[in-house]
Design brief:
heterodimer; A: 181 residues; alpha/beta; archaeoglobus fulgidus dsm 4304 fold; seven-stranded mixed sheet; 7 strands; 25% strand; globular; B: 593 residues; Rossmann fold; 3 domains; seven-stranded parallel sheet; six-stranded parallel sheet; 22 helices; 16 strands; 40% helix; elongated
């Protein structure tokens, strides 16, 4: 994974879509500081077997998001984001392998998880970016604040996740068409 | 002295092995439980990925002080208005923050305009490139797409339609802002590096208009018209510093060799009034089709979807061979659906005000300019020579003479306004609509009539006998071949209802804005049924422009003071203001009237 030029701040958005029919598909979108797309990585659908579901039990989601899909996308990404944002708390585990700090966008996460409180995430600090609250590990707080100061014109932190959903949907349609052909 | 410690154990609380075993149980011997290990083959998750990188933006244009910025003031040392780099940078950041806040509000409350890949884009990477672009509302107001005025939602839809398309027809009804949509999309494409060179071809009277629109909607883009003598034009055709070149149709024949040179290629060619090339056999159409290009757009106000032959002609430019004239109409419709966008005012009515002003700022023709300058110079000298005998009547006479030259050159009949009117009437008539043209002079109405003959002109002014006037209105209303009525302000301003008219042209403007408003309201009372587009014609760098500036200032002042009331009669020019139009001087100093 190449480093971006030091002067250029980029921001990554990571999410995993779960579908009853297709499985689990992860998407990582890297944007420039003005919100333009630089790179998009997505996985082919990952389908856990019944055995996986039984043996992993309630830890399956954690494992897929934080240990299987996320690391693979980060590994394949050629434009390293300066900050990686996610909308699923399970993705915060990527902090252990990611060079960039990992932040949970509270408002984006609340759409599925309900209200995100400080008690749910001990050891995390809050930081504001583009009208949204980011939850970042205390030890990364200063770095994230510095990055945030370099992104004054980023308009929104929720909308890029919608773009990933659209892109995943488009990719899946193409794959289905290719298979049908 | 240490004594031996004596310890006694209380037997009632003593714990020994027998007290740990319940006394009322019997041990039973059972077999040892054997365990068995069952190996489970658990497949590791095989996560495969697919990824794409996209070009970084900003490589497309070099920004410099081009032709359309030539008059911008240059800041000098000691200039108190000059901003430092730091101030400018702070200003830009504040602007970006404000734009970001507006964009966020737009996201939370309204619809987002996303760029969708057209059907003919099949490669996943290309489709994802468009899908992953930010919604236009996020770009509006940012440094990438800073608009001087808030665009209407349908205009953002138009930009989203054009942006990904390599072949497109934007056929919005006249007055909906095709120019602005095309310019804004060109700007986005240049900023994103997707295009580097653009050629825009339009009718000659519209070149100035396009230059002006670029200076309003995309002031940072280097734009230049192809004009001047042959060596100059040849240099302009090959200059790599001009991102957008504007040429007129008439020029293409003369500069055929330059346009079709083998080293000449344009990333985008845009045709304005594209219905001009519908005739595939004419020489201009042939040249246009041969221009080496990557993307082709056509702009037209005519409802081309109603005319399959016209569509085939236009598509021969957009995508040669895509349509054939022997195709069934339904096939043509299906094939062109993804490449065409047409909105009418009725469709987007909820997005816009019922009265839409379109100022046609025009340049005098060379003949008019010569006559005008001579008349103004000589006229001012005569006024100054009158000295104390100068009256407001003298000034009025000069003003009126100059205004008449702005309409028509008395010697040659040349008229930039008429050229523009004819071009606009083509679209009005093709759309099946009707227009009113107002002028304060019957002489001007006489002069414009022959050029408008094919639009079935009717007249309504002082020379039309009273008893015939009702008949004229009735004929205008009911006869579908009559697309235009020529009216004088006096005769046509009062007591008429022309509710079926969607277009009003002010060929020359009245002194008093209230009279203009009344004239427009003959048609605009209509506003209930549909919107009205008012085109106000104004010659640049003439007395008309100076009068308009003063009237506008007064209108703003009155609006501020009397927001609810109509403009009083004194909204027209005062004595001082009329004298002030010419900056008259005598040996005693400035003549103020």
């Amino acid at each position: 994974m190449s480093r971006s030029p030091e002067a250029e701040v980029t921001i990554g958005f990571y999410t995993v879509e779960e579908s009853e029919f297709t499985g689990w598909t992860g998407g990582l979108l890297v944007l420039s500081s003005s919100g333009r797309p630089l790179e998009f990585q997505c996985t082919l659908p990952v389908r856990p077997t019944r055995t996986h579901e039984i043996l992993y039990g309630p830890t399956l989601r954690d494992y897929l998001i934080g240990e299987a899909i996320g690391p693979m996308l980060l590994k394949r990404c050629r434009n390293a984001p300066s900050l990686l944002c996610c909308n699923q708390p399970e993705a915060l585990q990527l902090e252990s392998i990611s060079e960039a700090p990992v932040a949970l966008v509270s408002e984006a996460a609340e759409q599925e998880e309900g209200p995100i409180t400080d008690e749910m995430l001990p050891g995390y600090e809050r930081c504001e970016l583009a009208g949204s609250t980011l939850r970042v590990a205390i030890e990364r707080y200063e770095i994230v604040r510095d990055i945030v100061s370099k992104l004054p014109s980023l308009p929104d932190m929720l909308e890029p996740f919608d773009r990933i959903k659209e892109a995943i949907s488009e990719a899946q349609k193409q794959i289905s068409r290719a298979r049908a052909a | 002295m240490i004594h031996d410690l004596e310890i006694e154990i209380d037997p009632s609380v003593e714990l020994n092995s027998s007290s740990l075993i319940p006394t009322n149980v019997t041990p039973i011997a059972i077999d040892t439980i054997e365990t068995t290990a069952i190996p489970i083959r658990l497949q590791a998750f095989d996560v495969k990925t697919v990824g794409f990188q996209f070009p970084r933006s900003g490589g497309g244009i070099k920004v410099f002080r081009g032709a359309n910025q030539a008059n911008a003031p240059i800041s000098q040392p000691g200039d108190h208005n000059a901003k430092t780099t730091e101030e400018r940078s702070r200003e830009l950041i504040e602007k970006s923050r404000a734009a970001a806040t507006r964009a966020r509000q737009s996201i939370r409350t309204g619809k987002l305009t996303r760029i969708k890949p057209p059907a003919d884009v099949v490669k996943l990477e290309d489709r994802l490139f468009y899908l992953l672009q930010p919604p236009l509302e996020l770009l509006v107001g940012s440094e990438q797409l800073d608009f001087p005025f808030e665009p209407f939602p349908y205009q953002l839809d138009g930009i989203a339609f054009l942006f990904p398309r390599y072949a497109a027809v934007l056929a919005d009804e006249m007055g909906l802002g095709k120019t602005m949509q095309a310019i804004s999309t060109v700007r986005l494409l240049l900023c994103s590096g997707e295009v580097r060179s653009v050629l825009l071809i339009c009718p000659k009277p519209l070149v100035t208009n396009w230059m002006r629109e670029f200076s309003v909607w995309a002031p940072e883009i280097p734009v230049a018209p192809i004009e001047g003598n042959s060596p100059t034009r040849q240099w302009q055709w090959t200059s790599p510093d001009i991102a957008v070149k504007i040429a007129n149709y008439e020029l293409l024949m003369r500069d055929r060799d330059s346009v079709l040179d083998q080293d000449q290629h344009f990333d985008l060619v845009v045709l304005d009034e594209a219905q001009r090339i519908k005739n595939q056999k004419n020489a201009t159409s042939a040249i246009v089709r041969e221009i080496s290009r990557t993307r082709s757009w056509a702009l037209t106000g005519t409802p081309v979807e109603n005319s399959p032959e016209d569509l085939v002609g236009i598509f021969e430019f957009l995508s040669p061979g895509y349509l054939r004239s022997d195709m069934p109409v339904a096939t043509i419709a299906k094939a062109t659906r993804d490449h065409m966008l047409r909105r009418t005012k009725d469709m987007v009515l909820q997005d816009m005000p019922p009265k839409l002003y379109r100022d046609a700022d025009l340049e005098l023709t060379p003949e008019q300019r010569l006559t005008y300058e001579k008349a103004e110079t000589e006229g001012v000298v005569q006024l100054e020579n009158l000295d104390s005998q100068l009256t407001i009547q003298h000034v009025f006479e000069l003003v009126l003479r100059l205004k008449q030259i702005c309409n028509f050159d008395p010697a040659t009949g040349s008229s930039a306004k008429l050229e523009r009117l004819v071009a606009d009437m083509e679209e009005v008539a093709a759309s099946g609509q009707k227009a009113i043209v107002f002028s304060q002079w019957v002489k001007s109405i006489d002069a414009m009539r022959p050029a408008l003959e094919r639009f079935g002109p009717l007249e309504y002014h002082g020379r039309v006998p009273q008893k015939q006037r009702d008949g004229v209105i009735e004929q205008f209303k009911s006869d579908p071949s009559k697309h235009v009525i020529l009216m004088s302000y006096g005769a046509g301003s009062v007591g008429l209802n022309l509710q079926f008219c969607r277009y009003v042209f002010l060929f020359d403007r009245w002194w008093n804005p209230a009279v203009e408003d009344q004239a427009i309201n003959r048609a605009h009372r209509i506003g209930v049924a549909g919107s009205v587009t008012v085109t106000r014609m104004l010659m640049q760098n003439t007395i008309e422009q100076r009068i308009a500036a003063v009237l506008e200032q007064k209108r703003e002042m009155f609006d501020e003071l009397f927001s609810e009331s109509k403009l009083p009669g004194s909204a027209s020019l005062s004595r001082e203001e009329i004298f002030g139009l010419f900056n008259l001087r005598s040996p005693k100093g400035r003549i103020a009237g």
